[in-house]
Amino acid sequence: MSYQFDDLKKSCPTEWRDYIEHSFVQQLGDATLATEAFQHYLKQDYLFLIQFARAFALAAYKSPTLADLKQAKEGLEAIVDTELDLHISYCNEWGISEAELAELPEARATLAYTRYVLDTGNRGDLLDLHVALSPCMVGYGEIANWLNSRSTTIRGDSNPYDAWIAMYESDDFQEAMQAEVQWLNERLAEVSPARFEQLSRVFRDATRLEIDFWNMGLNLSE
Ligand SMILES: Cc1ncc(CO)c(N)n1
């Protein structure tokens, strides 16, 4: 039996679908999402990205080869030098200042998700950590593609969330997503059924925590 990334999704089809097709995502595509929900999500996503950067630093520490070390370093660099700056200016366009971002308390859903990823990486090896990160690295690209495949999704100036979709459909993000799937496919091909069972638990838990992250945005929960 040789496993692939797709097998992780197939091991929790309901959770994966609930994450990709979440009502937060649907409302964002239909341009009906409440401004406050999106702003709350954006603020917490800033805190998420900071912990996400730490996860790449952990990936560097957990890297057995120079190639893995370089990949982790590039991920960390991309988040710290580019994505966080982009996120801060995007938050600004939505009326959220950098000063406000710096003062934010972490919502429970943000704490749960990010610390789960870091703990999984600490307990396990680089593959555990990548599997824990894959719902975010692959899921958002899939979400953009799913939104584009629906007839009710509104694109362009009449959707205030158009730039969000554009970011995750971009070549840069889609290429990073493909690279992650390929990295995982190469490693999953060699794992035993018992190891795959462990990894699918990590994947399912991280996916459930992504669902909670959307719920947190919709419900404005802290
Ligand atoms: C919660 C969350 N998951 C995934 C991504 C995509 O990087 C993000 N920005 N935030």
Describe the model:
Pfam families: TENA_THI-4 (PF03070). Pathway: Cofactor biosynthesis; thiamine diphosphate biosynthesis. It catalyses: 4-amino-5-aminomethyl-2-methylpyrimidine + H2O = 4-amino-5-hydroxymethyl-2-methylpyrimidine + NH4(+); thiamine + H2O = 5-(2-hydroxyethyl)-4-methylthiazole + 4-amino-5-hydroxymethyl-2-methylpyrimidine + H(+). Belongs to the TenA family. This is Aminopyrimidine aminohydrolase. The chain has 222 residues and is mainly α. The chain has a single domain, classed as Heme oxygenase-like (Heme Oxygenase, Chain A). 79% of the residues lie in helices and 0% in strands. It has helices at residues 5-10, 13-20, 23-30, 35-61, 66-93, 98-103, 108-123, 126-149, 162-169, 171-188, 193-219. Helix 4 runs antiparallel to helix 11. It is globular. The model has no long low-confidence stretch (mean pLDDT 96). Bound molecules: 4-amino-5-hydroxymethyl-2-methylpyrimidine (HMH). 4-amino-5-hydroxymethyl-2-methylpyrimidine binds at residues 45, 48, 136, 140, 210, 213.
